[in-house]
Design goal:
about 20% strand, 9-stranded mixed beta sheet, 11 helices, alpha/beta, Rossmann fold, disordered N terminus
């Protein structure tokens, strides 16, 4: 067990911090769009216009793509799986290294609170480029899948039964671990809501998950944390007060349980710093966190 809280390299953001904080509130449903825009208008200037603020804060998925779906080193498709305790059936984006022969470690990729958007699909492709078989389920499959924009995606995800969504991800984890291409070692990486799901999977299916990497995710229910067996690589952002407020208690429970965990706190980074489609993206910290993620999976999913 180890904890790292030293400062990490970071990128200066020219936009005032409160704008990022307001975007976080908006993205997580604490304020509506009208309130978000009204707050932004209070810091807009002749040079820092509303257009500049919105173009920086709102996602631009096309510009952020790192691995093309046409990349010859990967093979992407879609897979459905049974989810009897959830919505009956789940569906996800399945990506494997091209020409894969034999078995490989498998990684579940878990999206934020808005469905399977292009950023998360790109993360799955990055994992396939690194030699893993990745599955990124879409919690919005029961209502037609990710609708093409985050606002509607958030609304759709809020409309679904949270317990059934969690069961869909549990079913996805079990499906992926038993997949024909799986070597029997399952990892999971998730972001925001997906980070919570990684923590939840570690606590609810401890004999299924072999390694977990939650990015800025809240912990599972307190009574479940004693069940955690998988090693965890916990990635937190220094400026993410909302999620970080849950860390001291979670850390105390992990210590009491003798859990194998490492926490990295990324200095001057915002919630969502790995997401390269918005202004919260911190390239240096994101690359460092991603390299740590790959090394962690290579270690624990041989």
């Amino acid at each position: 067990m180890s904890v790292e809280v030293k400062s990490e390299p970071s990128t200066f953001h020219p936009i005032p911090q409160e704008a990022f904080d307001w975007y976080d509130e908006y993205a997580h449903g604490f304020i509506d769009r009208r309130t978000f825009l009204a707050r932004l208008s209070t810091i807009a200037t002749a040079t820092l216009t509303m257009g500049v603020l919105l173009s920086t804060l709102m996602p631009d998925y096309v510009a952020a793509e790192q691995v093309s779906f046409n990349d010859p080193e990967i093979k992407a498709s879609y897979a459905t799986f049974p989810s009897p305790q959830g919505h009956g059936e789940g569906r996800g984006y399945l990506v494997a290294p091209s020409g894969l022969s034999g078995k490989a470690p498998v990684v579940l990729v878990i999206h934020e609170n808005r469905g399977l958007n292009p950023y998360i699909k790109d993360v799955a492709r990055r994992l396939a480029k690194a030699g893993f078989v990745a599955l990124a389920p879409d919690a919005l499959h029961p209502v037609g899948g990710y609708p093409g924009n985050d606002d509607e995606g958030r609304s759709l995800q809020r409309s679904l039964d949270r317990v059934k969504i969690e069961q869909d991800f549990i079913a996805a984890a079990k499906y992926l671990k038993s997949h024909d291409s799986s070597n029997g070692k399952l990892g999971a990486v998730g972001f925001c809501f997906g980070g919570y799901v990684v923590n939840m999977l570690a606590a609810v299916i401890p004999d299924t998950l072999n390694a977990g990497v939650p990015f800025y995710g809240t912990p599972a229910a307190k009574e479940l944390r004693k069940n955690i067996k998988a090693p965890l690589l916990i990635q937190l952002a220094e400026l993410d007060g909302r999620v970080n407020s849950s860390w001291p208690e979670y850390e105390a429970d992990l210590k009491a349980n003798g859990s194998d965990y490492t926490m990295h706190m990324y200095a001057n980074a915002n919630h969502g710093f790995h997401n390269d489609s918005t202004g919260r993206y911190d390239p240096e910290n994101a690359e460092l966190a991603w390299n740590r993620t790959l090394e962690f999976f290579k270690k624990h999913l041989p």
